[in-house]
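Interim report, section 4.2 (structural modelling).
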Amino acid sequence: MEASMIRVENLVRKFGDLTAVNDVSFDVKKGEIFAFLGPNGAGKTTTIKVLTTLLKPTSGRVELNGLNPVSHNNEARKSFGIVFQDPSLDQDLTAWENMELHGVLYRVPGKIRRERTETLMKLFELWEKRDTLVKQFSGGMKRRLEIARGFLHTPKILFLDEPTLGLDPQSRNQLWTHVKHLNETEGVTVFLTTHYMDEADRVAHRIAVIDHGRIVAMGTSQELKQQTKTETLEEAFLALTGTTIREESAGGADQLRQVARMFRR
Amino acid sequence: MKAIYILWLRELKKYSRSRVQIIASMGQPLLYLLVLGFGLGPVFEKAGSGNYRQFISPGIMGMTVLFTSVFSGIALLWDRQFGFLKETLVAPVPRIQVMIGRTLGGATVAMIQGTLIVVVCLIVGFRPVSLAMVPLGFVFLGLIAIVFAALGTAIGSSLQDMQGFQLIMNFLVLPIFFLSGALFPLNNLPKALAFVTALDPLSYGVDGLRASLIGVSHFGAITDAVVLCCVAAALLCLGAWRFSKIEI
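Predicted structure of the assembly:
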C-alpha cells in the first residue's frame, strides 16, 4: 500500500454558526494529483487553510506527510508549498524581491535561488519586469508571479488553490505542464482546486466533489462520469451539485479591502 | 536568522520607498514643536520653568518614535488584507522569528524617523546640554521604539479590521502620548493624573530622553531604563503570543 501524503479524517471547521467544512474525510497518496472541486463557498479554501496551518480544525484529524499541522506546525510547513487563491504578494517590493524573500524564507540556497528565479521568471515571462514594483503589475502578471514563486522551492506537497483564476490560456497551459512535470519527475503530490473542469480532467488522477462542506463524490474523472451517467466532467459536476448559484457573504477581509482602496494603499 | 534579516530588510525597503509618507509624518511633530513651542513658550518661561522648546523637544522625539513604531506594528493589518501575511505564515519559519523580524524592522524605521526629528529639533533651536550624553538619548529612543513596535505587533495581530484601528488610535495611542509628560512637566500634578502618568511606559521614555538631553529628570534615568526594559520584554512576549495565535 502506498503511503498517504495528506490524510483528513472527519474534519469539521465552524465559523460561529456557519459550518464551512462538515465531516470531511479523504486520503491523498504520495505522488498523486488530487483535485478538489466545488461551487463557491463549498469549503475548498477552508480545507486548504486547515491543511496549511492557517486555520485550526474545530474537530477531526489532519495529517500532512505524517505530521499533524496543529501540534507540529513548523515541521508540517516544511513539507508543502502553496499558491493562494487570493493575492499574497508584497506590492511595495519588486518582482525579484518577492522571489528573493520567498526563497530565503524557504531556505533555498543562494545560488540555486537565483538560478531558479531566473528560469521561472523567464518561463512565466516576467524576467524583463523583474525590477518593477509589483503594484505596477497587471492582474495577470501578479498571478503569474504568484505561481512562479510557488515553484521556487520543491515541496513534497503542492497546494494550488484556484491557481488559474484570471490567467490567459498560454499561462494556464504553462502552469499545468509544469505541474505535471514536477509530479512525474520529482513525485510531488499535488492538491488543487479549480472551477475549470477541463483542467481537472486533464491533470488530476483523482477528484473529490465538495458541496455545502461535505464530500458528495470521489473518484477518477471516469468514475464520476459513470456514476452520474454523463459525458463530461462539467455535466457530472452539475449533476452532483445542482444548478443553483451559491451565495457567499463578504468576509471582513473583503470589506476592509474596499476601505483600503479608498485610502489607495 | 536569515529569515529575521530579510523581514527586517523588507520593512526598511518599504520605508525608504515611501518618501511622501516620510515627509507627511514630519508634519505633526513640526506643528507641536513650532506652534506649541513658540505659543506656550512665554507662559512656560513666566512660570519659571525655563525654555519650553528645549523642554518639549525630547517629548516630540518620543512622540515621533511612538507613532511610527505603533503604526509599523499595525501595518500587519494591511499585510493581512493584502494577503502578504499568509505568505509569511505558511513559510517554514517559526512564527517567533517572523514576529521578531517585523518588530525589529518597525523599531529601526521608528529610530530613523526619530533621528530625522532630532535634526529638525536642532534646526529649530534645541540644544542638548551635554554632547557626551547624546548617545544615551539614542539608547532611550531605541528602547521606546522596541516597546511600542512590540505593542503595535500585539495590536496588529489582534485586530481584524479598520474600525478597531480607530479605537486603538483614540483610546490607546493618543492617551499614551498625552499622558506621557511629553508636553508638560510631571512635577506637582494632581494625584490621579500623577498616578496615570506613572503607568504610561512613554513617561519613562520621555523622562529618559530629558535626563540625557537636557539634564532634567522626574523618575531618574536608571529607573527609566529599567522600567522600559521590563515593559519591552513583557510586550515582546505578548506580541509573540498574539502573533502565534493569528488565524486567517
